[in-house]
Amino acid sequence: MTGPETTVLVVNSGSSSLKFSLVDPAAGVALADGIIERICEETSHAKLGYRDQEIAREVRAADHDAALRLVFDLFAELGGDLDALGLVAVGHRMVHGGQRYHAPTLIDDAVVADLAELSPLAPLHNPPGVLGIEVAQRILPELPHVAVFDTAFFHDLPAAAATYAIDADVAAQWQIRRYGFHGTSHRYVSEQAADLLGRPYGELKQIVLHLGNGASASAVDRGRAVDTSMGMTPLEGLVMGTRCGDIDPGIVFYLARTAGLSMDEIDTLLNRRSGMLGLAGENDFREVHRLIDAGDAAARLAYEVYVHRLRKYIGAYLAVLGGADVIAFTAGVGENDAAVRRDALAGLEPLGVRLDEARNTSGDRGARVISAEDSAVTVLVVPTDEELAIARDTLAALG
Ligand code: AMP
After folding, report:
1. What local confidence, expressed as pLDDT, does residue 265 receive?
2. How high is the pLDDT of residue 1?
3. What is the mean pLDDT of each run of 10 residues along the chain (399 residues)?
């Protein structure tokens, strides 16, 4: 068997986890992938798949450095050989590029320093991202490292969509604007949608619904993102697994002044203990459905709140775009949960959206059409692949 000519290691470093994927960009496949979770805790959990083998075990990863070294050890244990696989670069998922960074960027010391400076904009996400870069550079110093930004696809939002209606001087001083996130996924999925339909990307008006544990919607007008639901931070917009999405900002003042919560407590409440978890006690939709089937009223309400918000955004983006050619569902919920897709689009026939229920529930896995033949808007399920998109962007940045 001949191996791939070039592979890219994609690293996605979170505060207590490190996800990685060894991608063959030409073939569009991951050769190996896995995750180390609970880094810095007493025991960490490691999972790595390579070819058709898998390791899943409790390990000790005292820090991110140890975690990444462990990845290579486990990979070697399964017979993997990075040299033989033609590893040429490392692509890093960075959540926030601020105003300055949007194109995939070859990382040098100045870039690392800049990214560290952006940390106040994304305090939960950028510091572990920078840490991941530093660790990977230490372990693989001979390879080029490239940062790919989650905000990139939205850097060019029209000012009307990117601007918050607050004091303009304050906004400018503190770089407050809609940045948007999950951009790698929104771009990948909208490009795949055009491919699937055999239509030019630059001709389609698309609504992309990235519904995972984090969730976001975007309106893509002939290749350009013109609106998105996440904002200055990933907290705004749709109801998510553990985040509230849109709420009245007055609730924050009320929780601080009247309920006496600290800013950190409110941050935790809205980012980690809200959304489906806050309403239903579960953030996994499979569990939410199980609870609903068992007659749980809180889970039913959570589901209805989720679907209602989603419908509002679909309606809003139909208006922003002046009608759509495509609505594309992606990520864990979007790809797997036929009920969410059905309920979010129910009754939208007057707006040109008609689902085919047999297609919607077919159980197929790949990119596929789920609307009826006579639907003016083509509804798609398109599996996202952020790692592949990052790997391709990484190679593109290297020319
Ligand atoms: P992601 O963030 O894209 O990995 O999505 C993770 C979420 O997808 C989980 O928290 C679940 O809510 C949801 N999910 C995954 N598999 C299924 C499934 N078979 N049915 C419904 N929801 C699913």
Report:
1. 98
2. 44
3. 79 91 94 92 93 92 90 90 89 93 95 92 88 93 96 97 98 96 97 98 98 97 98 96 98 98 97 97 97 98 98 98 98 98 97 98 95 98 97 95
Phi, psi (degrees; rounded to nearest 5) at 323: 95, 155
How far does residue 210's CA lie from ligand 1's centre (Å)? 11
- Quote the ligand 1 centre to 64 CA distance (angstroms): 26
Regarding the beta carbon of 336 and ligand 1, being less than 6 Å apart is answered yes
pLDDT at 2: 53
Nearest CA to ligand 1 atom 11: 284
Domains for the chain: give ranges and CATH numbers. Answer: 4-149 (3.30.420.40), 199-386 (3.30.420.40)
What is the CA angle 274-280-285, rounded to 5? 95
User: For the packed helices 263-272 and 250-257, what is the interaxial angle rounded to 10 degrees?
Assistant: 130
Q: Which atom of ligand 1 is nearest to the CA of 288?
A: 12
Distance CA 288, CA 290 (A): 5
| C-alpha to C-alpha distances, 250 to 253, 256, 257, 275, nearest whole angstrom | 5, 10, 11, 18
Active site residue 108: no
Q: Pairing relation of β-strands 145-149 and 105-106?
A: antiparallel
> Residue 367 Cα, ligand 1 centroid: separation in angstroms?
17
336 annotated binding-site participant = yes
Residue 360 labelled as part of a binding site: no
User: 150, 325, 385, 393: which one is catalytic?
Assistant: 150
Q: Which long-range contacts (CB under 8 A, 24 or more apart) does 24-32 make?
A: 25/388, 25/391, 25/392, 25/395, 28/385, 28/388, 29/388, 30/387, 30/388, 31/4, 31/7, 31/85, 32/75, 32/78, 32/80
Any atom of ligand 1 within 6 Å of the Cβ of 337 = yes
